[in-house]
Design goal:
Blueprint (H helix, E strand, L loop, with lengths): L14 H9 L8 H14 L4 H6 L1 H7 L5 H4 L4 H8 L8 H21 L2 H7 L6 E2 L10 H12 L7 H10 L3 E2 L9
Parallel strand pairs: 1-2
Bound molecules: zinc ion.
The site of zinc ion has 7 residues, from loops.
């Protein structure tokens, strides 16, 4: 049997995390609803572990209506209270409000650029940034630039570290180890 080689950091992690590493992390994502999904999950990720966020993904999906940003943008104060009382997700009022605010900003980007995909992939002319070393970066000039732009477009909870992680999630940055079979 041929041994499958994966990034060092995924060794010993639970199956759902390995699935994320194998099938999502570093793979180009072009669907706007999925681009919104990973953006708000990364906002919730801020200051916490990604494993924790991923472990709650099914609850997030239910709470945020399959990440339908058009519906999330219409969430009211009642919805915020409901989410704050939902033990399945991360009950952080600022992040919950950011998810709603960012749904609105996301649609403004769509109006301006045609799609969020056109906007976000435009920063690299549609190209993936593939790392050539086994260094583990947590931010870069690219994530700084995109963070600045997102903030100018009204997005909240989008620091450069959060956005670097987002760019890995949606495959604009491919940071798989050089020896990883999923690179
Ligand atoms: Zn890998």
């Amino acid at each position: 049997m041929v041994e499958v080689k994966r990034c060092d950091w995924i060794q010993g992690k639970p199956d759902y995390y390995v699935h994320y590493h194998d099938h999502i992390w570093g793979k180009p994502e072009y669907d706007d609803q999925a681009l919104y999904k990973w953006l708000i999950l990364e906002c919730f990720h801020t200051g916490l572990s990604w494993q924790l966020v991923l472990s709650k993904e099914a609850h997030f999906s239910e709470a945020f209506l399959d990440y339908d940003y058009q519906l999330v943008a219409q969430f009211t104060e009642d919805d915020i209270q409901r989410l704050k009382n939902n033990p399945g997700i991360i009950r952080h009022e600022g992040k919950i409000k950011a998810a709603i605010n960012n749904a609105k900003a996301f649609m403004e980007i769509q109006n301006e650029y045609g799609s969020f995909k056109e906007y976000i992939w435009g920063f690299t002319d549609g190209q993936q940034v593939v790392k050539q070393t086994d260094d583990h970066l947590t931010r870069s000039d690219l994530s700084d630039t995109i963070t600045k732009s997102l903030k100018a477009h009204g997005f909240k909870w989008v620091g450069s570290v959060t956005i670097y992680s987002y760019l890995q999630a949606i495959g604009i940055i491919n940071d798989h180890d050089l020896a990883c079979d999923f690179r």
